[in-house]
Amino acid sequence: MKINEFVRRTLLLQLESAYPVSLPIETLKQGVFLHGLPANRRLLEKELAYLQDKGFVLRLSNDICPQAYRYKISAQGIDFLENEKRNPSRI
Question: Is 89 among the domain residues?
Answer without folding.
Answer: no
